[in-house]
Amino acid sequence: MIDGKIVKTCEDMISLNSVRSLFQLEAEIILFRSRFSINICPLIFFNSNINRLRIYDLVDTFYKKNVLNFYNRTFERLNSRIYAVLLYRCENVALDTSFLNPSVFRELSFFYVYCSVNSISKDLFLHFKNIYQINFIANHFRTFIHRNGIKWIEGINQGLHVNLSNLTDFKSIWREMKILEVSNNNNVFRITNVFPEEDFCIYKDYPFEQMVFTFHSAFMCWNKESCEFLKKITSYSCTYLWISQYFYLLEEVFRRYESKTAQDNLLIIIDSNSYKNRNSCHFERRLALCNRSNYNLKEIWGIQDYSILNKKIQISVKILIYLVSLFSIVTNILVVKIIFSKHNKHVFKDFKHYTYLG
User: What kind and span of H or E run contains 59?
Assistant: First the structure.
């Protein structure tokens, strides 16, 4: 409501000539258990300055729908500055420009998805040139990839072509690199479960030249000894060794600009025996097999799919209980009617069960 008038659309705001900033401070906004019944006008974020936008409980399932969508409008002079978006406890949502409006999130640098995502638009990240890090959690990532493939990754830094085999080329443009991080949030999902051998062909066309590094963070070193121990015992699938083959280029950059935890995770990978012997995976032979096999993506079931199935079973059982109860009531009424029928009195004259109804 603006100036005492209900505003529902962008046209309402423009006609009132009352476009004003609601988020001028360098704030952290938390949308917790919010209900989104209508689309949002991007003008609400005019001149906004938000460090972090945390959004909880977005749902798009057969039993519940609560989705944040913007009107399909872009405003070149919106001057919206939102640097990080974090999604929590979402279910089956779609990531596209109706959610990440290009005008509202033009300055987006960090995008964290700590929940279940159903789909992602292939050209989504073409609109966000300032994006640096995209984070998913491990227990949803493989299901997500099997459903969507990696075409959306090819939209990150699209148009950039760097020869990563040439260290000079990398050093000249390293600031353009992007991090796609898969976080092992509960230490249950091993990296070989997230990037198993059988998924190698999914990543055969990985856009290395666009400087997108898919980084799996799972370990934390408490001291030098624990780091050395992890380097010795950790092994990686050829799938992960394929997409991480240029990680050795990142050591100097991480040492200068990244956190100690990120540095430790990188060193655990590049100093491991698996990484040092990655040529034993015979990548060229594997790529040739992928090209000959006509490999196609197949959806696999994940945690969220079982959760939705469980909901369906619960709803089905509840409906069945109502139907059985209704059937019981109807049959009991019919029994009573038959017993008290004049035509059947001689048959049930000694029947005493329903005498209290007489």
Answer: strand 59-60
Residue in 43, 3, 2, 52 with CA at minimum distance from that of residue 25: 52
Bridge-based pairing of strands 84-88 and 49-56 is: parallel
Q: Is 113 exposed, middle or buried (0-12, 13-18, 19+ CB in 10 A)?
A: buried
Interatomic CA distance for residues 351 and 275, integer angstroms: 85
pLDDT at residue 223 is higher than 60: yes
Closest C-alpha among 351, 329, 326 to residue 341: 351
Q: Please provide residue 349's backbone torsions phi and psi, each rounded to the nearest 5 degrees.
A: -65, -30
> Which amino acid type is present at position 92?
N
Highest mean pLDDT: which of 7-11, 115-119, 242-246, 306-310?
A: 242-246
Asked if 130 and 154 touch (Cβ cutoff 8 Å), the reply is no
Q: Which two tokens stand for residue 332?
A: 């009991």
**Which helix (H) or strand (E) segment is 126 a member of?**
none
Exposure string of 209-225, with b = 16+ CB inside 10 Å and e = fewer, is: ebbbbbbbbbbebeeee
CB 30 within 8 A of CB 54: yes
Position 69, amino acid? N
> Would you give the DSSP letter of residue 167?
H
Distance CA 179, CA 181 (A): 6
Q: Contact 15/40 with Cβ under 8 angstroms?
A: no
Burial grade of 345 (CB within 10 A; 0-12, 13-18, 19 or more): exposed
Residue recorded with tokens 């001291």: 223
- Evaluate whether 278 touches 241 at the Cβ level (below 8 Å): yes
Which residues touch 90 (CB under 8 Å, ≥6 apart)?
Answer: 55, 56, 57, 58, 59, 113, 115, 116, 117
CA distances from 161 to 153, 211, 223 (A): 14, 8, 39
Q: Which of 207, 340, 182 is nearest to 265 (CA)?
A: 182
Whether the pLDDT of residue 126 is over 80: the answer is yes
Q: Are the beta carbons of 219 and 268 closer than 8 angstroms?
A: yes
Query: Which amino acid, 254?
Result: F
Local confidence band at 231 (pLDDT 50, 70, 90 cut-offs): confident
* The predicted structure's pLDDT at residue 11: 73
